[in-house]
Backbone:
């Protein structure tokens, strides 16, 4: 399919989904939701993630990404955690997720620890949201009071996962459209993309930029030539595409503003990264420049956008349920182990964050 047809198709999908998405800007979420019922929940989640990140520093970025991949598909309801069963078609096998998402086992560890302290109280959706904030802090990034009170979905939606999650080869028009579907604006797009300040990606997600960008037989002209040679050394032409490289070549495991400084010198790893700065006349360029020169501004914008994203399509009150285990709805354990331990040890296809 030609790039133009892909773009037109995506934009048509945007219009269809936009009219059906259950936004919840007035949802009754509160940072003190578990004050009486599970006051230790934040410290429990933090301790599990802190221990895991000692041996796997990449996990911090992976948990933020897991939250993102959940919220962009029927809202922040932990639908991404549901395994295949006779009645559920798991989002874990959608193209942007299969052999790609990481951290499912860590979420299960957290859920077990939380259930031991406060059985039947804390939702998996809230655990994902808390894990994202704690991962930011442990990566030396910003902290914020996480609004809580989400409940867990009874369903998953692989079709929406394939449709809604932005791809690493998206241009700026498609990126903006994908975020608009979720009620997120251009500032949110640039701020949330800053999560690529740490983490890794497989060669397969950007190798075309190195050798055959847009079927030209040449590299992406927006790539820094020195950086191009560095990436080619990691990702040989015709290779397996499984090698990993850092999103941020300067401070790969630290949450900071260097993501934006890298874009300014044309060292964005994915096309969807560099598009924010290299698209001629784009309104994102000024935002990149401001975030690059002012880390406090970036952190404040990231916090606001994460809270905004975390409020998409949430279930509250009597909606959904509090799952006893995150991989399946209550009363149906079929398929519990089929995908919970099937995640890839490496990042595969990645989204825009």
Residues:
């Amino acid at each position: 399919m030609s790039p133009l047809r892909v773009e037109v198709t995506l934009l048509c999908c945007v219009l269809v989904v936009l009219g059906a998405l259950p936004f919840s800007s007035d949802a009754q979420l509160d940072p003190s939701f578990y004050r009486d019922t599970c006051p230790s929940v934040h410290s429990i989640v933090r301790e599990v993630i802190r221990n895991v990140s000692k041996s796997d520093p990449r996990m911090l970025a992976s948990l933020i990404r897991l939250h993102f991949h959940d919220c962009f598909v029927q809202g922040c309801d932990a639908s991404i955690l549901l395994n295949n069963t006779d009645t559920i078609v798991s989002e874990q096998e959608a193209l942007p997720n299969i052999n790609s998402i990481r951290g499912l086992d860590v979420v299960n560890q957290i859920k077990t620890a939380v259930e031991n302290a406060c059985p039947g109280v804390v939702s998996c959706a809230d655990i994902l949201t808390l894990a994202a904030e704690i991962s930011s802090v442990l990566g030396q990034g910003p902290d914020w009071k996480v609004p809580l009170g989400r409940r867990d979905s009874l369903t998953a939606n692989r079709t929406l996962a394939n449709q809604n999650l932005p791809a690493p080869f998206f241009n700026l028009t498609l990126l903006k459209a994908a975020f608009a579907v979720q009620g997120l604006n251009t500032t949110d797009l640039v701020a949330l993309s800053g999560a690529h300040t740490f983490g890794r990606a497989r060669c397969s997600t950007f190798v075309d930029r190195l050798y055959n960008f847009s079927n030209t037989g040449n590299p992406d002209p927006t790539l820094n030539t020195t950086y191009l040679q560095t990436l080619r050394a990691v990702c040989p032409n015709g290779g397996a595409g499984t090698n990993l490289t850092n999103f941020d070549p300067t401070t790969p495991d630290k949450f900071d503003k260097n993501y934006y400084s890298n874009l300014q010198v044309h060292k964005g790893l994915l096309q969807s990264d560099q598009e924010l700065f290299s698209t001629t006349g784009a309104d994102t360029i000024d935002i990149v420049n401001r975030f690059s020169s002012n880390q406090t501004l970036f952190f404040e914008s990231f916090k606001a956008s994460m809270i905004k994203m975390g409020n998409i399509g949430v279930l509250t009150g009597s909606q959904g349920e509090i799952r006893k285990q995150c991989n399946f709805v209550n009363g149906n354990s079929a398929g519990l182990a089929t995908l919970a331990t099937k995640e890839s040890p490496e990042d595969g296809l990645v989204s825009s964050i």
